[in-house]
């Protein structure tokens, strides 16, 4: 088990010196007159704020010209925060280069796949592979670290900000040179690269490294392995920048932890955060709710995956919103109770810090309509009252600080290579959405009240789980296929889906019939895919409906059981869902997209062989999400009401740390959260 108080997490100490949950926001005092700063600190104390992220977009203020520095304002803010008992997650301020830098060195600006320059005027207008940008950025980092190394308010370093949010893919000449160097390190020889990229196709054989370019605008579909490798390279290029800043910080301030804010949320797929996790002293994440029928399911999914990336150790929620954002087509405010419920759901999944963007709502700029802890209406507002109420709740949850997230019996595997590769062009369908399929399985498990982990596919000990679900596990190297086979033969229960096992790590087809690397394990063979056009569906004989995809399955092993057949469509009467039982485990294949509704009906049959059942009263299944954290002495049960109705939870006992009293049985009001502390059973 991990340490109760991991030494590299920037805990805010309570009055007795023990860790407590951190609470705060991005703080941008440079946007406001000096007269506002003292009021900010006073209101922060009122709200229970104990940490802020500071200086994120302040490069132009800190260094107004190449040889001019201005730290006076930041010195004063750091001192004010310290006097108010508030710690600083101090940013390196490299997220957006100042106008003087891009004017003097336009070669730091990114270039799109079509050759257009990304000009200044917004943010993140820099190339991750630019030597010029790197030189100026590290000079700023070194100057900041030297100046604030001993400041008592300094709690952690915040490298850049949301690395890759807008500049993950750069197709410039700098990127081309760096891409070639990356490829040399990966393949060593041109022969190996030509083999991996399949360059015999379309006369693409390379005879010199200098001939290789990023996948810029081409006459037709660019080489698919080139595309996949460029995605891997682009993630690595940003990771390399993270490392470069981190090494300067560690050289000067070795005792100050370093992090950067990931963005584990829908639509952000360019960075392999499971690969990045080892580069930071603690994992931090930004998350924003996207309204829709699965909005809170997705919040839970992303928080859960962040915990998986963090190895179930505590992590830092660096940004989320108090209410509406500014970047969606329609920016709907949160309902009463959502601010607290959203925040505490992150805590339930392992966050030991809850922070918002931002502290005070901007009066100018592109994010002036984005909500904040102090809205335009000021502290006499429903939002600020909700903010202070959450602060009180987080203080009451101090005993949870440092506890780990208790593993579940079920895991959903998440794999960046499969996400990247399965959604590339020139495939059987352009409608496949990897993240959506994974979320559908998770939503169905939530509806059934099954506690589940979302974990990185290549960094997980599968043997710790009774049931592993691997949706659209498209990229399966030989080693992973072997690991999955050993898992099943050893008694584990595997579920996978359409378009899984199809290619190896080079995006080459596993020949002999689909599902390729998993064909023998599943005991089936598919000769041809059957993707469905928009609007078409097929009925299954278990009363579910499939969309998007079908497979013409031939059963090849005698121990395969057909759990469901197609009732309509081109493959009517053929198998749609199969299960093979080699050894002590089972391997199940689902050949169509059933959606959350269909999976909710199918899952009980898949859970049964693993002996997995819900842990809450049956009447609460689906209405309440249960997540458990634990330390050496206690378990902390987070009970989140997912509905707009009160839910009774009879029989649950424990010390109530947050939520309604449970003297006569616990009843969760609509959209509320209760946290119970129970003694941990003797082992």
Task: Provide tags for this entry.
29% helix; globular; single chain; 3 domains; TIM Barrel; Immunoglobulin-like; Rossmann fold; 9-stranded parallel beta sheet; alpha/beta; 683 residues
Number of domains: 3
Q: What share of the residues does DSSP label as strand, in percent?
A: 15-25%
CATH structural fold name of the largest domain? TIM Barrel
Please name the fourth-level CATH homologous superfamily of the largest domain. Answer: Glycosidases
Query: Mean of residue pLDDT?
Result: 96
Sheet with most strands: strand arrangement: 7-6-5-4-3-11-10-9-8
In CATH's first tier, which class of the largest domain applies?
Alpha Beta
Seen as an oligomer or otherwise, the chain set is single chain
What is the number of beta strands? 29
Shape: globular
Low-confidence stretches: 1-6
Give a verbal description of the structure.
By secondary structure, the protein is an alpha/beta fold. The chain has three domains: 12-168 and 238-403, TIM Barrel; 410-610, Class I glutamine amidotransferase (GATase) domain (Rossmann fold); 619-679, Golgi alpha-mannosidase II (Immunoglobulin-like). Helix content is 29%, strand content 19%. It is built from 17 helices and 29 strands. The protein has a nine-stranded parallel sheet. Strands 14-13-15-16-23-22-21 form a seven-stranded mixed sheet, sandwiched between helices. The chain has a five-stranded antiparallel sheet with strand order 12-24-25-29-27, with helices on one face. Helix 5 packs parallel to helix 8 (224-252), helix 6 (173-187) packs across helix 8 (224-252) and helix 14 packs across helix 17 (595-607).
